[in-house]
Amino acid sequence: MGFFDAAMNPVPPGAKTWASMDLGAGASGIAIWQADQLDGTFVVKKRGSKGNHYGWNGDYYEDAFLAWESVVSRCSLVVTEKGAGFRPNVIDGQGKMRGFLMAVCMYCHVPLEIVNVSEWRRCIKESHNVSWPKGTDRKKALAQDLVLRNHRLNVSHDEADAVLIGEAAMRMGIAAPVLPLPKPTA
Questions:
Q1: What whole-number distance in Å separates Cα of residue 115 and Cα of residue 165?
Q2: What's the CATH number where 71 sits?
Q3: How many C-beta neighbours within 10 Å does residue 14 have?
Q4: End-to-end Cα separation, the chain, in angstroms
Q5: Which secondary structure element, helix H or strand E, spans residue 64, and what is its range?
Q6: How far is 173 from 175, CA to CA, in rounded Å?
Q7: Sign of dihedral through CA atoms 48, 144, 36, 182?
Q8: Residue 146 lies in a domain
Q9: Does the chain have fewer CB atoms within 10 Å around its N or its C terminus?
Q10: β-strand partners of 30
Q11: In the prediction, which pLDDT does 86 show?
């Protein structure tokens, strides 16, 4: 059974557990998958001003490493994006988070796959027959709408991106099982 409500998402026994993540300096969206079934979403973020963090499914941890280790240690694979920030401080923050996640994955002996934003968005564009709008807020709204329509989940924009990164990872063959690409229409 899954880590979340098994009645909501029945998953075959022995399914492969993996995570897709949308990393952020303040909050990171996490989607947990059992094979090709979305098992649930949550956010890892700082709690208060003393360095404490929310980790696995909202549990409370004393520091960032323990919070991230609580997530990564339960997975056989982690997939995240290589951000495309425009400001130097955003690019710097994303690089630090990826490096931190890489260290946690190495500690837990869990492989980490990184996909470019343009790659996963192109994959979602093709599979869901949508066009990504210009503007960050409109992209966030579209991601949330796609997750609501396809998974019946009302999630934050960080969680929505994490779900879509996971869908794209399966379609790209990064995470098993590989889902067939849609056939082009004439």
A1: 8
A2: 3.30.420.10
A3: 7
A4: 41
A5: helix 64-72
A6: 6
A7: negative
A8: yes
A9: C
A10: 21, 42
A11: 73
pLDDT score at 183: 54
Dist. CA 58–CA 30, nearest whole Å: 11
Q: Do the strands 52-54 and 37-47 form a parallel or antiparallel pair, or are they unpaired? A: antiparallel
The answer to whether position 103 is within a domain reads yes
Q: What's the pLDDT tens digit per position in 93-113?
A: 888 889 999 999 999 999 999
- Contacts of residue 2, defined as CB under 8 A and 6 or more positions apart, other chains included, come to 9, 11, 15, 32, 34, 37, 39, 40
Written as one letter, the residue type at 75 is C
Residue 179 lies in a domain: no
Distance separating alpha carbons of residues 106 and 29, to the nearest angstrom: 20
Residue 1 lies in a domain: no
Q: Which of 172, 173, 159 is nearest to 19 (CA)?
A: 159
Residue 120 vs residues 42, 62, 114, 162: alpha-carbon distances, Å:
20, 33, 10, 11
Residues listed for the chain: 186
Q: What is the pLDDT of residues 110-148, one digit of tens each?
A: 999 999 999 999 999 999 999 998 988 999 999 999 999
Average predicted confidence (pLDDT) for the chain: 82
Strand order in the sheet with 60-61: 60-61, 52-54, 37-47, 27-34, 17-22, 78-82, 112-116
Domains in the chain: how many in total?
1
- Cβ(117)–Cβ(84) below 8 Å: yes
In the block, tokens 């849609």 appear at 182
